[in-house]
Amino acid sequence: MSARSPLSSPPTSPLARVLARLRTTSPYAVDTAVAGLVLFAVSLQWLFPDEGDDPLSWRGWLLGAATAVPLVWRRAAPFATACAVSVATPVQALYHAPPPDLMYGGFVVLYTLAALARPWQRRVMLAGWLVGVAATISHREDAEPFEYAFQLLSIVCAYALGSLARTQRAYTAELEDRARRLERERAADTARATAQERARIARDMHDILAHAVSLMVVQAEAGPVVVRSDPARAEAAFDAIATTGRDAMTQLRRILGVLKQEERESGPWRLPQPGLAALPGLVRRVGESTGLVVELRVRGEARPLPRDTEVAAYRIAQEALTNTVKHAYASCATVGLDWAEDEVTLTVTDDGRGPAAPGGGGHGLIGIRERAAACGGAAITGAGPEGGFQVLVRLPVAAGRRAALG
Length: 406
Known about the structure:
The protein has helices spanning 14-23, 27-42, 44-47, 58-66, 78-95, 104-116, 119-138, 145-226, 231-256, 279-290, 307-328, 363-374, 398-405; strands at residues 293-299, 332-339, 343-350, 378-383, 389-396.
């Protein structure tokens, strides 16, 4: 005996397979089969004539057939089919040759109306059948009281089953529609997250490359000038170029590593991106590589920040110092961190030539504003209080404090 795999799907019951096959079958084929079954049921009295003393006639059989044949169109035209069966059934009962044992066709059309028809059609037909059956039974001489309850209860049960089928179908359709909406929303969220991640990576790569290339250009320009007069200084410049290039490659690999799904979580390029703790090292590298006097000033008590905010603050300071090296022609720069209760203010000020002409802002300043806005903060760039150029960024710390307290 072969063992069934625990991951295999459970066996499908024969009834489930039959129902699944019926759902894919043509509606007319199913309805024709239903009509044939009802016709067989109303013909039993002719097939077994000795079972009772009821009179039989071909006219009675034709009236019985009139309650079954219209069922072929019960889903294409439910109300018209119900009207036809509703006329044939009481006529057969009053003709009494033979009287119907059960209203098979009536049960089917009431079920169909309750499942498919409009509200007013359902109500009118249910009320008509209840009144019509009660009136028809009252015309019979040998009618028993229990027959009223049995026939009326049968009508209500057929209608209730149809209503249950309609409710189940509406519920299933709602679930399918909700699933489609959730799938579309999930796809849209994935697309937005992908676009935001790509934009973040693009900003990081811009900041890394612009900073590294700027420092390397400064050192490369200074190296040939002092190569004969001060070989030691020239050697230090070339060493700084190599160090800056290696650092840039490391950071680029770290960023690009998030795009490689095959990288293991503990891979060497999955290290966290730099935050405020790396800010003193950034200030020191810029000063040593360019000869720019860079000072870091911190006021207030440091507070925990969300990781994204820390990375944004580091990248903003890096981009601001890159702009100072490339464009300001400054001799000194100051990086300030001013901690308050609900926000931290980051300022980068230099003594260079000040803002460029209006409209001359590049991608770096745009990236600074975008990073600040993404963290719920704001950035202001322009002339410093004592000349030169200043980047002032305010970033919230409340989210970081809640995370730390939680």
